[in-house]
Amino acid sequence: MFITFEGIEGCGKTTQINLMGSFLDTKGLPYIITREPGGTEIGEEIRKILLSSKNKDMSLTTELFLYIASRAQHIKEVIKPALANKKIVLCDRFSDATIAYQVYARGFDLKLVKKLNQLATYGLTPDITILFDCPVDVGLTRAMGRIRSETNQAKEDRFEREDRNFHEKVREGYLKVAKKKNERIIVIGGTKDRDIIHQEICNTVFPKIIAER
Questions:
Q1: CA torsion angle for 206, 208, 212, 213 (degrees, to 10)?
Q2: How confident is the model at residue 144 (pLDDT cuts 50, 70, 90)?
Q3: 76: closest CA among 34, 120, 35?
Q4: pLDDT tens digits along 93-131
Q5: One-character DSSP codes across 114-127
Q6: 3-state percent breakdown (helix, strand, coil) of the chain, nearest 5
Q7: 88-92 and 185-189 strand pairing
Q8: pTM of the model
Q9: Per DSSP, which regions of 118-209 are E strands?
C-alpha cells in the first residue's frame, strides 16, 4: 500500500509519518519511510538545490522540472521496488504537493503538471493520502522554529521565506485537490494534539491496510 502525507510547511506531517512507522513496527508489518524531494541519492542532491535559500533566484520552470526529476528517480529506485516487495510505503509528500505548490501557488498550467507527473510516476498514484490542514500562521511559526533549532549550515528554508500570500495559495490548493479527490485524500486538522492526530490516522488507515493484505 502506498500512503502519502501532505500539507503546508509546519503542518506536522513529518512527525506523524514517523509515528505511523512506529505503529507499523508494533504490528510487525514491513514498511519504508521516504520523502520528496529526496528519497534517493540523486533525489537528496536535488533536494539540497531546491530547498536552499541560497538559490532564491531559481527559475520557476527549473524548480518544477527538478521536482519532477527527483520523483522519477524516486519511483524507479525506491517506491516501485518497495511496493513490488509488498512493503507499505509511507511518503512525506508526492505529486499532490506539485499541484498545490507549482500549479496553485506558482501558476503553472494544471494539465501540463499532470502530464509531467504522469510521466515521472508511470501513472502510479497513492492508495491513501493524509492531508494535514492548519492555518498558515501556525504552520510557519512551527517551521521557522524548527529551522532556527537546526545547527547545520545548509538550512532548508527557501519555501519558508516565501510571503504569506504564497503559503495561503498552497493551503487553498491542497484543499481544492482534496475536494476533487475525496475518495483518496483524508483531511485531518493539524492543530490538534499530536497523539490525538496519530490515533485518528491509525483508526482510519490501519483497517484499509489490513483489508488490502
A1: 20
A2: confident
A3: 120
A4: 999 999 999 999 999 999 999 999 999 999 999 999 999
A5: HHHHHHHHTT---S
A6: 60, 15, 25
A7: unpaired
A8: 0.93
A9: 128-133, 185-189
In this predicted structure, the answer to whether residue 154 has a pLDDT above a threshold of 60 is no
Residues in the chain, total: 213
Q: What is the DSSP string of the chain?
A: -EEEEEESTTSSHHHHHHHHHHHHHHTT--EEEEESS-SSHHHHHHHHHHHBGGGTT--HHHHHHHHHHHHHHHIIIIIHHHHHTTPEEEEES-HHHHIIIIIIIT---HHHHHHHHHHHHTT---SEEEEEE--HHHHHHHHHHHHHH--SSS-B-TTTTS-HHHHHHHHHHHHHHHHHTTTTEEEEETTS-HHHHHHHHHHHHHHHHHHH-
Q: How far apart are CA 119 and CA 140, in angstroms?
A: 32
Asked if 42 and 76 count as a contact pair (C-beta separation under 8 A), the reply is no
Mind listing the pLDDT tens digit for each residue in 45-56?
A: 999 999 998 999
